[in-house]
């Protein structure tokens, strides 16, 4: 056998148990804005999602786009502020967030997946009344996040219908309040809540670090609830990593089998995580 055929056969043999184990199972993937760095990586992500669907898994994509929102705000001369990893969102910022996430970023991902042979459908949490949100309180008297929301409830019937028809849902993290107000929700939180609602097999959060790192920059390959608490208190975990570990933990506590924080800057990181036993990031257990 030529070397390349042997190599492909070896990969397939390694992947087979995972393909069987995850057949028909839902895997919620959070694709962070920081992992959408260049065209080659975006292509690799789209190929991985299509491949997962082709072998019988049900990938559901929730995307971010924080850097893309910040870029557009800067172009229109608007400053933006993050507190504990969340963007303080006034009414004008909310309009930009909805345009960038629900429009540009969502449709770019849908097009990429479709150009690789998938059948992606782009949605925001408003479609099918999927994400009911309420205003998020900062818990501090002097901090008002504005239009930042938290998930109140999820109606997953639209996602389930799409999955059953072999579509790949691609969801922008925007929700409506019962008061009709539009809310900007951190994409990690939406992915976690959706994974819990769907009792997904896995929640995979793709970001721009090799996983959760300790103070010396070493990868923490596994984290429990107690360790997360400890690393939050001593400041090891901060900023954008805070909503990530919180929702990853909530998801496993709600019945999702495993949550993973992985490096979206690595080619085919998603397939490596799902189809091999090479741990490529941080695994979070309840
Ligand atoms: N302990 C930690 N390990 C890794 N990254 C951390 C840690 N604490 C804070 N961070 C920060 O969290 C960032 C990831 O969050 P964020 O920028 O919101 O990414 P994304 O756009 O993928 O959601 C990392 O780039 C890093 O700056
Ligand atoms: C409330 C809040 O912070 N919302 C995020 C939504 C997008 C997001 O989560 O994007 P990433 O995953 O790329 O960071 C924001 O406005 O940036």
TrEMBL record:
Q: Which GO terms describe its molecular function?
A: acetylglutamate kinase activity; ATP binding
What are the binding positions for substrate in this chain?
Answer: 65-66, 87, 184
Question: An example Gene Ontology cellular component term from the record?
Answer: cytoplasm
Gene3D superfamilies (alphabetical): Acetylglutamate kinase-like
> Per the UniProt record, which EC number(s) apply here?
2.7.2.8
- Cited Pfam families: AA_kinase (PF00696)
**Positions of the Aspartate/glutamate/uridylate kinase domain:** 25-263
| Recorded superkingdom | Bacteria
Q: Is-annotated flag, keyword Transferase? A: yes
Biochemical pathway: Amino-acid biosynthesis; L-arginine biosynthesis; N(2)-acetyl-L-ornithine from L-glutamate: step 2/4
Q: Where in the cell is it found?
A: Cytoplasm
Where is the site described as Transition state stabilizer found in this chain? Answer: 30, 244
Q: Which UniProt keywords apply?
A: Amino-acid biosynthesis, Arginine biosynthesis, ATP-binding, Cytoplasm, Kinase, Nucleotide-binding, Transferase
Q: Which reaction does it catalyse?
A: N-acetyl-L-glutamate + ATP = N-acetyl-L-glutamyl 5-phosphate + ADP
Biological process GO terms, please?
Answer: L-arginine biosynthetic process via ornithine
Q: What class of enzyme is it?
A: transferase
> Its function?
Catalyzes the ATP-dependent phosphorylation of N-acetyl-L-glutamate.
Name the protein family. Answer: Belongs to the acetylglutamate kinase family. ArgB subfamily.
Q: What name does the UniProt record give this protein?
A: Acetylglutamate kinase
Which source organism?
Arenicella xantha
């Amino acid at each position: 056998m030529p070397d390349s055929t042997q190599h492909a056969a070896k990969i397939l043999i390694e992947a087979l148990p995972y393909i069987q184990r995850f057949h028909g199972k839902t895997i919620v993937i959070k694709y962070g804005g920081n992992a959408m760095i260049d065209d080659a990586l975006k292509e690799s992500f789209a190929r991985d999602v299509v491949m997962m669907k082709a072998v019988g898994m049900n990938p559901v994509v929730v995307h971010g786009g924080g850097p893309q929102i910040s870029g557009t705000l800067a172009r229109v001369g608007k400053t933006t502020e993050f507190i504990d990893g969340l963007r303080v969102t006034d009414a004008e910022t909310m309009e930009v967030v909805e345009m960038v996430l629900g429009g540009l970023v969502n449709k770019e991902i849908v097009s990429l997946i479709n150009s690789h042979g998938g059948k992606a459908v782009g949605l925001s949490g408003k479609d099918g009344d999927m994400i009911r949100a309420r205003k998020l309180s900062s818990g501090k008297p002097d901090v008002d996040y504005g239009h930042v929301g938290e998930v109140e409830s999820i109606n997953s019937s639209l996602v389930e219908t799409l999955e059953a028809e072999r579509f790949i849902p691609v969801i922008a993290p925007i929700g409506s309040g019962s008061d009709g107000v539009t809310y900007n929700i951190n994409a990690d939180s939406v992915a976690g809540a959706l994974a819990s609602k769907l009792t997904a097999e896995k929640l995979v959060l793709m970001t721009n670090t090799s996983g959760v790192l300790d103070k010396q920059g070493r990868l923490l390959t596994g984290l429990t609830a107690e360790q997360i608490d400890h690393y939050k208190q001593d400041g090891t975990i901060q900023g954008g990593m805070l909503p990530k570990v919180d929702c990853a933990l909530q998801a496993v506590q709600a019945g999702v089998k495993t949550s993973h924080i992985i490096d979206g800057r690595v080619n085919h990181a998603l397939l490596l995580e799902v189809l091999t036993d090479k741990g490529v990031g941080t695994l979070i257990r309840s």
